[in-house]
Structures are given as structure tokens and as C-alpha cells.
């Protein structure tokens, strides 16, 4: 079964550059690098030198008590064992000798294979070894087998030894490498061989950069092919519906950004109405196509208005978009959020990862109303965050959207990753609130398909952000970008939406 995450395996004999290339590949793809050799060494160090006198049952028990995890991406990925970072203590000759003895024990290999697969189930990986593509991750989409002649590999090894001040004989090194190849290819457990679907690369006459180029080109090609196989809907029709229906959207929103929400709604092709008095919100929302509730500057007065408007919108059958700004940072926000979720049951909930984690788990690491930087969605945590969004969607019967450098749009059965956007969007206030406004416009115009309408709205904002940064003149700053972002929303059309979208279906 093919892994739903991006798993890249690099197998091959010693001396072909697997470790260097695995780190470089992980850096380029911005996903985690798994050093399987470090796992063997850590296991050896934690089990201790007396492991030879232990029974098989005791070895298994002690080994299974060690839980591996990863932190970070690329060549700076940190391997953790029981939440403690693995460091230089595993790099001694003594630990290496112990790890070699453990590596030939089938039970140990099976335990570590299970641990490696668990890591691959929770994060995208680049992993190198001798049986990664054949045994550990046979379902990986991206498999490579690197090779080189024994003479070239011996020359590379000799250069490494000379750099460490050690002299050796080239012919002897070549003999040792050939003998090891013979043993590895004929061993009874996980023999060294390329997977049937692996890309074979002879690195003998290639530089590291040339090999890396082949790997990245192949990954990009196969990923593009996979994306084409997945069903990602056309989005132009959702844009067209907004232009034709010109939905009226009712806002009870953040006073810091109310004008921008009105303007971006107009830019998207809809019309805004701002009304937050409890005495009128029920009547106002009754004549609108959608309601947007934004908790950015919540008060007890606006909390009551949100509940009254939300109930009126649901009674009228109009979609409700909730932006739980600052969820988790105060009792007022949290109490209001619980009431809205219980009494209104919004159709679309959009928040950053900290806010959405609070909805899913009751915890989060917010910095004011911003997400903590270490929590932002990237390839290393994409599936985990998508599953979180689906949990919220299933619990609330809604579309759940996690925003960030990579956005996730999900309902209980589907999840998409949206890669459109620009870092400039984080340098002006209110882009998240403006995104909720566009979501309201698209939900109001497309009430029968809230998932794909939300997907279209997220691409609109992302593409507008990209267009704005591309048009930013030399010397231009956040004020100019703010203006260009509104221009970007207003000048998009349906054809540009489908041509420029960068959407991947995850589930």
C-alpha cells in the first residue's frame, strides 16, 4: 500500500554518497531526514554493553520502551529518543561496534523497522539505508538506488580517511568494499538490492549536485503525476457564482480590520454589511446570504450579538463562517467559542494552527492572536494537521480550515493542501480576517458545496497574495503591498484561479 505522505528512500552500498544526498534532498524538499544508523546506535547505547547476557524477552522489553520521534526538517532534523535529543554520544567507536552487533539480530531489525514505519506514518521523510525501499517503506512513491564502482567508492573513502589524517591502501579498501558488497547482497535478512520500482543512479561519474538534480527532478515528476491522478475540482465555477449572485454578507467582525473586510468583500464580487447591535442582528442576517463571525475584538456585547445572529442565520438556512481569533487566550473568548459551537454550529471554521488545535484538543501555543512559529504547517506535519482538521470537521459537521504558509481545507471525508500565498501576507494586519470575508462571499454564493467553495476562496486569497508580491515595486513596503493585495483579489478571474492554483488532495 502506498504511503499517503512523501517518503523518499535512498538505498545502496557504502560509499555512494547516500547520507550526503539524503540530507541535501531533505533540505531541498523541506521535510525531515531520518538517520536510521543513528537509531541503531541509540538503541545500542541505551540497551548497554551487557545486552549480550540478556534474554531475548528482556531485550525486546527494553527496546520497545524506547520511543523515537523527529523534530525539525532537512539536515537539521533532530532525532529524539523518549523526548530527549540524540547527540554526539552515539558517535563513538565503541557504540558503533555495539550497533553493528545489534544490527544482525532479526528481532532488533524488526523492532526498529516498526519504529521507522511509525515515523513515516506521522511525517514526510527522506531516509537512506540498504533496505528502505524494499523492506521498511515498500509503498514509498519515491525510491532510488544509488551505486558506483568499487574503485570509485574506495577512492572516495580514502579521501575521507586522508582528511581525518589516516593513511590507507586503495587496493585494500577496494577489496574490503567488494567483500562487504558480496555479504550484503547475499545475506538472508533484507539483502541489498534495488526495489523493483526504484530509480537506479550510477554515481560513478556524477557530482553530488548532478545526482541531487536527478533525484529532485524525479520527485517533482512523480509528485506532479500523482497530483494529476487525484481529484481536485475545477474552481472557476465557484468564482463565477460569486460574480453572478453578488451575495450580501453580514459581518460581526474585528474592529481593527472592519474596513479591510468590507473592501476585500467588494473586491471578491460580493457586498458587505456591518451590523453588530443585538437589537438588529437577527433582522439583518435574515436578508443576507451568509454570516461571518470574527472573535478578534470580542466583548460581552458582541458575543451576545454573534449568538443571536448565528441562530437567526441557521434558522434561515444561511451558511455561517467562524474565525475563532485568539481561541485559548482568555475565558471570555473560550466561553463564547463554546456557545457558538454548541448553539450555532458554523458551516466553515477557519483559524491558524494554534486556534484550531485549541478547538481540537483544548490546548494551543498562541502568541496573542498569531500562531506560534514552531507549529506552522509544512511537509513534516502536514498529514497530522490535516487529520486534526478532519477531526474538527467531523465533530462540528463543518469545513475546517487551518491557515499558514500551507493551508489545509478539510471536511470529514476529504482534505486538501493549498500552497498558494506569499510571505508578505504575514507582514500586514488582518489578512486572516480578510480571508474569512472571502470565505463568507464564496459560501454565500455556493451554499450547496461548502467544501469546494472554501477551497476556491483560499486559492483566491493565496493567488492574490502572490500577484501582489510579484507587482511590489523596488522600495515598496507593507503599505503598498496592502493596496496590491486588494487589487489582486479584484482582478482575478475564474481562468486564472484554475491556472494558478497549487492544490493537492491529501485524502
Describe what you observe in this structure.
- With 507 residues, the chain is of the alpha/beta class.
- It is 51% helix and 15% strand.
- It contains 20 helices and 19 strands.
- The strands form four sheets. A nine-stranded mixed beta sheet has the order 10-9-11-12-13-16-17-18-19, with helices on both faces.
- Strand 11, helix 13 and strand 12 form a beta-alpha-beta unit.
- Helix 2 crosses helix 4 and helix 10 runs antiparallel to helix 20.
- The longest helix is centred in the middle third of the chain and has 22 residues.
- The two termini are 14 Å apart.
- The model has no long low-confidence stretch (mean pLDDT 88).
What characteristic shape results from the CA principal axes? Answer: elongated
Q: How far is the first residue's CA from the last residue's CA?
A: 14 Å
Q: What quaternary form is this?
A: single chain
Number of strands: 19
Instruction: Report Rg.
Output: 27 Å
Report the sheet-strand fraction. Answer: 15-25%
| Mean pLDDT level | 88
Which segments are poorly predicted (pLDDT under 50) over 5 or more consecutive residues?
none
- Main beta-sheet strand count, sense and barrel state: 9 strands, mixed
Q: Give the neighbour order of strands across the main sheet.
A: 10-9-11-12-13-16-17-18-19
* Count of helical regions: 20
Structural class: alpha/beta
Helix content: 40-55%
Amino acid at each position: 500500500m502506498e504511503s499517503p505522505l512523501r517518503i523518499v528512500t535512498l538505498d545502496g552500498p557504502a560509499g555512494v554518497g547516500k547520507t550526503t544526498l539524503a540530507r541535501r534532498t531533505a533540505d531541498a524538499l523541506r521535510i525531515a531526514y531520518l538517520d536510521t544508523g543513528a537509531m541503531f546506535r541509540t538503541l545500542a547505547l541505551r540497551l548497554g554493553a551487557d545486552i549480550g547476557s540478556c534474554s531475548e524477552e528482556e531485550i525486546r522489553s527494553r527496546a520497545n520502551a524506547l520511543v523515537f520521534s523527529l523534530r525539525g526538517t532537512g539536515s537539521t532534523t533532530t532525532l529524539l529518543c523518549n523526548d530527549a535529543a540524540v547527540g554526539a554520544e552515539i558517535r563513538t567507536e565503541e557504540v558503533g561496534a555495539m550497533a553493528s552487533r545489534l544490527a544482525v539480530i532479526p528481532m532488533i531489525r524488526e523492532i526498529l523497522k516498526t519504529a521507522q514505519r511509525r515515523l513515516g506514518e506521522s511525517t514526510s521523510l527522506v531516509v537512506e539505508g540498504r533496505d528502505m525501499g524494499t523492506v521498511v517503506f515498500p509503498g514509498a512513491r519515491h525510491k532510488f538506488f544509488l551505486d558506483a564502482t568499487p574503485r570509485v567508492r574506495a577512492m572516495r573513502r580514502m579521501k575521507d580517511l586522508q582528511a581525518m589524517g589516516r593513511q590507507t591502501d586503495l587496493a585494500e579498501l577496494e577489496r574490503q568494499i567488494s567483500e562487504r558488497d558480496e555479504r550484503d547482497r547475499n545475506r538472508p535478512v533484507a539483502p541489498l538490492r534495488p526495489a523493483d520500482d526504484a530509480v537506479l543512479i550510477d554515481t560513478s561519474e556524477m557530482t553530488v549536485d548532478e545526482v541531487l538534480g536527478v533525484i529532485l527532478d524525479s520527485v517533482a515528476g512523480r509528485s506532479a503525476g500523482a497530483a494529476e491522478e487525484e481529484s481536485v475540482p475545477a474552481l472557476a465555477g465557484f468564482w463565477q457564482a460569486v460574480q453572478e449572485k453578488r451575495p450580501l454578507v453580514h459581518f460581526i467582525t474585528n474592529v481593527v480590520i472592519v474596513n479591510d473586510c468590507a473592501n476585500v468583500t467588494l473586491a471578491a464580487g460580493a457586498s458587505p454589511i456591518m451590523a453588530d447591535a443585538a437589537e438588529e442582528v437577527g433582522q439583518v442576517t435574515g436578508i443576507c446570504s451568509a454570516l461571518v463571525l470574527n472573535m478578534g475584538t470580542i466583548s460581552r456585547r458582541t458575543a451576545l450579538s454573534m449568538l443571536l445572529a448565528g441562530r437567526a442565520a441557521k434558522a434561515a438556512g444561511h451558511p455561517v463562517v467562524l474565525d475563532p481569533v485568539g481561541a485559548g487566550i482568555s475565558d471570555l473568548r473560550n466561553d463564547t467559542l463554546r456557545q457558538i459551537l454548541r448553539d450555532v454550529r458554523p458551516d466553515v471554521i477557519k483559524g491558524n494552527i494554534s486556534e484550531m488545535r485549541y478547538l481540537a484538543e483544548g490546548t494551543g501555543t498562541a502568541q496573542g492572536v498569531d500562531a506560534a512559529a514552531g507549529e506552522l504547517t509544512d511537509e513534516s506535519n502536514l498529514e497530522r494537521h490535516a487529520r486534526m482538521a478532519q477531526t474538527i470537521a467531523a465533530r462540528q459537521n463543518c469545513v475546517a480550515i487551518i491557515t499558514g504558509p500551507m493551508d489545509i481545507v478539510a471536511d470529514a471525508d476529504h482534505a486538501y493542501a493549498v500552497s498558494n500565498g506569499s510571505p508578505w501576507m504575514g507582514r500586514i494586519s488582518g489578512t486572516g480576517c480578510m480571508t474569512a470575508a472571502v470565505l463568507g462571499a464564496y459560501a454565500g454564493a455556493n451554499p450547496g458545496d461548502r467544501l469546494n467553495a472554501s477551497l476556491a476562496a483560499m486559492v483566491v486569497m493565496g493567488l492574490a497574495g502572490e500577484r501582489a508580491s510579484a507587482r511590489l515595486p523596488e522600495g515598496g513596503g507593507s503599505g503598498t503591498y496592502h493596496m496590491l493585495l486588494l487589487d489582486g483579489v479584484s482582478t482575478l478571474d475564474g481562468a486564472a484561479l484554475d491556472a494558478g492554483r497549487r492544490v493537492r488532495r491529501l485524502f
